[in-house]
Amino acid sequence: MSKYHKLFTAxxxxxxxxxxxxxxxxxxxxxxxxxxIAAWDLDxxxxxxxxxxxxxxxFTGEEVFAEQCxxxxxxxxxxxxxxxxxxxxxxxxxxxxxxxxxxxxxxxLSTVWDYVNRSMPFGNAQSLEPDDVYAMVAxxxxxxxxxxxxxxxxxxxxxxxxxxxxxxxxxxDRDTSEAHFWTDEPCMKDCKESVEITMRxxxxxxxxxxxxxxxxxxxxxxxxxxxxxxxxxxxESAAEExxxxxxxMIESGEKVFKKCKSCHQVGEGAKHRTGPALNGIIGANxxxxxxxxxxxxxxxxxDEGLVWNDxxxxxxxxxxxxxxxxxxxxxxxLKKEDDIQxxxxxxxxxxx
Amino acid sequence: xxxxxxxxxxxxxxxLSGAAAVGVGAVGSGAARAASPDPxxxxxxxxAQATGEGVDATPYGLPIQFEKDVVRRNVEWLTxxxxxxxxxxxxxxxxxxxxxxxxxxERHHSGAIELSKPDYRLMINGLVxxxxxxxxxxxxxxxxxxxxxxCECAAxxxxxxxxxxxxxxxxxxxxxxxxxxxxxxxxxxxEEAGVKPAGKWIYVEGADASSNGRSIPLEKAMDDVLxxxxxxxxxxxxxxxxPVRLVVPGWEGNMWVKxxxxxxxxxxxxxxxxxxxxxxxxxxxxxSRKWSWVMDAKSVVTSPSPQAPITHGPxxxxxxxxxxxxxxxxxxxxxSVDGGKNWVPARLAAPGTDKALTRFYxxxxxxxxxxxxxxxxxxxxxxxxxTKAQLRDVRGENSIxxxxxxxxxxxxxxxxxxxVEVS
Lengths: 352, 423
Description:
With about 350 residues, chain A is mainly α. Helices cover about 40% and strands about 5% of the residues of chain A.
């Protein structure tokens, strides 16, 4: 033991006069307050530990789901594009391509409640009230044919729900089922008679091109160069406009935009995600960003000549669904007028 | 003056066609004779005449422009969105064992967040005598350790279960990095709070919107788990959990919770989304393994490989790769050039260390004929890396996770390489 350690132990003992029960403690940190633990300790265990009081029915769940989840998971929890499918797949786990959903795979209902409550909706986590979570989980169960449409889920009947794949798991058994991999002295010479190539990656050809990044870069440069002369004059005035924007507003708008980021990109190299890329959106015609598939509602508004000026955009952002019934933008809206104005200024900083 | 020696990164194809001509002349004759004097030598070059950049030109340095292809890469079709996705370490272009942070693979569930040290809090709660809150500064006052460990995503090589799919070591094996961590043993923090006898597990959780959380048996938590704040000597990168992440040596990367904000001592596993619906391994009969935490012994030849073809023709060739095991240290790596018929022991660059990457070399005299190149790792527990057929016999093809099979690169006479499966 080093001198330092001895010294340290001595002083630790000194410190521990205040905490006589624990001789080896460092006395660092402070006790967590009950309110702090309540705010962070949200996880729910399979036996229901951690589940708050509340309830929600399938009917309410369907509404909340359509509003909050359907854009990625589909109206019937069937999944959009590469986003997770939440329903279906029963009896497929031994198939070549198993479909793992809440109904076909998840062993515990607590996991569904806990995950929705803590981690969803994507980009706006921990914004749901317990009753909404109960309702959404009830709807997910219904979409998996686990409960009927009259069902109400609550903290009281939570443990009564039987998950179809509850018995489908075993604890890691590699030590026994794969004991033959512990061979110590593997074969070194003449281990097999012949070797044939049985499959080639080039056949599938799904590997990203090594030079893709460079190629895109060159292309863009060429395009920019040819377009440069034309737009120079325009750009100059645009640059002046951007320079006139309040940098503080841009900065706070950037913070507000974090709420939009899970679906929208803006800035250099922005691509369409769940929502369209937003460069130059303020002042642009609605539904006109190239290469994006808009909802019928947005197309109709575009046909009627909607332009995203400050006023229209403010109204849309305050409550998208109320402003435009049928929009695919499943976002509750920005409550604060200041946030709306800031995010509009931020968007303007990417052209308009 | 030289006209083509700087600025451009030569593409793989250009490089190959140029190299073939040089290679032929070199066969069997030792060092090739130059036909004419090399202007790079006979002419005074710009860099030997004018001055270069002064100090401070780049206060925090990045790799030189010629290395701009050595970067993380994403496979777009794998996931719905880059915010919840993974990319791959360019292991085909690296050497040694330490992975630079800037090109070490990233895996996010809700994107990489920016959490400052002043805003950082770590809570220890649950079955403890005194639930505690630590600031970043508090953590820096506990006795610290330095340890090198690999971090491998459980899904590394996961796209290869059903057959050879991705053409490059970066894509087949790049969900791995290996860093030197500085941090505080989790044991120290748990002891500071005082674990109650009923506590059998911990549940660890991150501060990002995914609130990724995993259950870990208390025994592991009290053994070698670190609460780390530095990697390779500097602060963790944002994408790796700045300012504080968990290091769970030898166990799957998903458990290495980033932006660590809470450690709860519990009686049982929480069975969170990440340990039930994901990171469980479905076997052929449809049942699934859970709690398959440890990463099995594994190795891969990083060069030559599809992204790192042989460009110099026959003659001396350095065959090199990486090996690792979550159960201990690498004790040996064998290499086969004939698809697993015969094996020769490779040279370990340094003796294997506990749960860290080991670099191996086979200094080889290539005769220019085709090779089916494989590596096979052995670890200190006596485990020998299995073939893909052996793994499929036990696990089927739907496991997704924990594919540690022997990888085969088909090296063609041209020096190009392809990911293949062999009988």
